[in-house]
Amino acid sequence: MAGLRTDTPTPVELTVHGASRVLDIAFSDGARFRIPFELMRVYSPSAEVQGHGPGQEVLQTGKREVEILALEPVGNYAVQPTFSDGHDSGIFTWDYLYFLGSQQDALWAEYTARLEAAGLDRDAPMPAKAGPSCGGH
Q: Does the chain have fewer CB atoms within 10 Å around its N or its C terminus?
Protein backbone atom coordinates (compact mmCIF):
# COMPACT_ATOMS: atom_id res chain seq x y z
CA MET A 1 0.00 0.00 0.00
CA ALA A 2 1.18 3.52 -0.75
CA GLY A 3 2.91 5.17 2.17
CA LEU A 4 4.08 1.94 3.74
CA ARG A 5 7.29 1.42 1.76
CA THR A 6 10.43 1.75 3.83
CA ASP A 7 11.93 4.28 1.39
CA THR A 8 8.97 6.69 1.56
CA PRO A 9 9.96 9.94 3.28
CA THR A 10 7.79 10.59 6.31
CA PRO A 11 6.50 13.93 7.59
CA VAL A 12 8.48 15.53 10.38
CA GLU A 13 6.21 18.59 10.48
CA LEU A 14 2.67 19.14 9.25
CA THR A 15 0.74 22.40 9.69
CA VAL A 16 -2.66 23.41 8.36
CA HIS A 17 -2.68 27.14 7.56
CA GLY A 18 -6.35 28.13 7.40
CA ALA A 19 -5.87 31.78 6.45
CA SER A 20 -3.63 31.05 3.43
CA ARG A 21 -5.36 27.71 2.73
CA VAL A 22 -2.17 25.65 2.45
CA LEU A 23 -0.86 22.49 4.06
CA ASP A 24 2.76 23.05 5.06
CA ILE A 25 4.54 19.72 5.22
CA ALA A 26 8.21 18.94 5.86
CA PHE A 27 9.59 15.48 5.13
CA SER A 28 12.39 13.39 6.63
CA ASP A 29 14.49 13.78 3.46
CA GLY A 30 14.59 17.58 3.89
CA ALA A 31 11.89 18.39 1.33
CA ARG A 32 9.26 20.94 2.36
CA PHE A 33 6.07 21.79 0.47
CA ARG A 34 3.20 24.24 0.81
CA ILE A 35 0.31 22.43 -0.85
CA PRO A 36 -2.79 24.54 -1.54
CA PHE A 37 -6.05 23.06 -0.23
CA GLU A 38 -7.55 23.57 -3.69
CA LEU A 39 -4.88 21.35 -5.26
CA MET A 40 -5.47 18.68 -2.61
CA ARG A 41 -9.21 18.83 -3.23
CA VAL A 42 -9.11 18.66 -7.02
CA TYR A 43 -6.58 15.80 -6.90
CA SER A 44 -8.18 13.96 -3.97
CA PRO A 45 -7.29 10.25 -4.19
CA SER A 46 -10.91 9.31 -3.42
CA ALA A 47 -13.01 7.25 -5.83
CA GLU A 48 -15.48 10.17 -5.89
CA VAL A 49 -12.80 12.25 -7.67
CA GLN A 50 -10.58 9.63 -9.31
CA GLY A 51 -13.34 7.23 -10.36
CA HIS A 52 -12.87 3.48 -10.33
CA GLY A 53 -10.57 3.29 -13.34
CA PRO A 54 -8.82 5.28 -16.06
CA GLY A 55 -11.07 7.77 -17.80
CA GLN A 56 -13.58 7.91 -14.93
CA GLU A 57 -12.05 10.96 -13.22
CA VAL A 58 -14.50 13.69 -12.22
CA LEU A 59 -13.23 17.18 -13.04
CA GLN A 60 -13.54 19.29 -9.90
CA THR A 61 -14.52 22.97 -10.11
CA GLY A 62 -15.42 25.70 -7.65
CA LYS A 63 -12.77 24.62 -5.13
CA ARG A 64 -10.62 27.80 -5.02
CA GLU A 65 -11.95 28.80 -1.57
CA VAL A 66 -12.18 25.30 -0.08
CA GLU A 67 -10.89 24.92 3.45
CA ILE A 68 -9.75 21.99 5.56
CA LEU A 69 -12.01 21.74 8.60
CA ALA A 70 -10.32 18.69 10.12
CA LEU A 71 -7.28 16.53 9.43
CA GLU A 72 -7.36 13.07 10.97
CA PRO A 73 -4.43 10.63 11.09
CA VAL A 74 -4.86 7.27 9.35
CA GLY A 75 -2.48 4.84 11.01
CA ASN A 76 1.15 5.89 10.59
CA TYR A 77 0.94 6.36 6.84
CA ALA A 78 -1.68 8.98 5.92
CA VAL A 79 -4.13 11.72 6.84
CA GLN A 80 -7.78 12.14 5.95
CA PRO A 81 -8.96 15.73 5.56
CA THR A 82 -12.51 16.97 5.87
CA PHE A 83 -13.00 19.79 3.37
CA SER A 84 -15.47 22.64 3.78
CA ASP A 85 -17.49 21.41 0.77
CA GLY A 86 -18.26 18.19 2.65
CA HIS A 87 -15.71 16.00 0.85
CA ASP A 88 -14.06 13.68 3.38
CA SER A 89 -13.37 10.36 1.66
CA GLY A 90 -9.83 10.96 0.39
CA ILE A 91 -6.96 9.30 2.26
CA PHE A 92 -3.72 11.16 1.53
CA THR A 93 -0.73 8.86 2.08
CA TRP A 94 2.69 10.37 2.79
CA ASP A 95 3.95 9.46 -0.67
CA TYR A 96 0.83 10.97 -2.30
CA LEU A 97 1.34 14.23 -0.38
CA TYR A 98 5.00 14.17 -1.44
CA PHE A 99 3.87 13.66 -5.05
CA LEU A 100 1.38 16.56 -4.83
CA GLY A 101 4.01 18.83 -3.31
CA SER A 102 6.84 17.95 -5.67
CA GLN A 103 4.68 18.01 -8.82
CA GLN A 104 2.56 21.10 -8.08
CA ASP A 105 3.51 23.03 -11.22
CA ALA A 106 2.79 20.10 -13.56
CA LEU A 107 -0.45 19.25 -11.73
CA TRP A 108 -1.71 22.85 -11.93
CA ALA A 109 -0.89 22.91 -15.66
CA GLU A 110 -2.72 19.61 -16.18
CA TYR A 111 -5.73 20.84 -14.18
CA THR A 112 -6.01 24.13 -16.07
CA ALA A 113 -5.67 22.27 -19.40
CA ARG A 114 -8.49 19.90 -18.38
CA LEU A 115 -10.65 22.88 -17.38
CA GLU A 116 -9.97 24.63 -20.68
CA ALA A 117 -10.75 21.48 -22.68
CA ALA A 118 -14.07 21.22 -20.82
CA GLY A 119 -14.86 24.91 -21.41
CA LEU A 120 -14.83 25.59 -17.65
CA ASP A 121 -12.87 27.70 -15.20
CA ARG A 122 -11.74 27.05 -11.63
CA ASP A 123 -14.69 28.91 -10.16
CA ALA A 124 -17.45 27.19 -12.14
CA PRO A 125 -19.93 25.48 -9.82
CA MET A 126 -19.85 21.70 -9.72
CA PRO A 127 -22.75 20.19 -11.67
CA ALA A 128 -25.49 18.59 -9.58
CA LYS A 129 -25.03 14.87 -9.05
CA ALA A 130 -27.37 12.64 -11.03
CA GLY A 131 -29.98 10.81 -8.99
CA PRO A 132 -30.09 7.04 -8.61
CA SER A 133 -30.69 5.00 -11.71
CA CYS A 134 -34.19 3.71 -12.38
CA GLY A 135 -32.95 0.32 -13.52
CA GLY A 136 -34.42 -0.71 -16.88
CA HIS A 137 -36.92 2.17 -17.19
A: C
| pTM for this prediction | 0.87
Residue-level pLDDT at 22: 98
Half-sphere exposure at residue 105, Cβ-oriented, CA atoms within 13 angstroms:
1
Instruction: Give pLDDT tens digits for 98-132.
Output: 999 999 999 999 999 999 999 999 999 987 664 44
Domains of the chain, by residue range, sit at: 1-6+37-120
Q: What is the pLDDT of residue 54?
A: 84
Considering the four listed CATH numbers 3.30.360.10, 3.30.2020.30, 3.20.20.60, 3.40.630.30, the one that applies to the domain covering 1-6+37-120 is 3.30.2020.30
Residues near 129 by beta carbon (within 8 Å), at least 6 away in sequence? none
Give Rg (Cα) of the chain. Answer: 16
Report the distance separating Cα 80 and Cα 15, nearest Å: 14
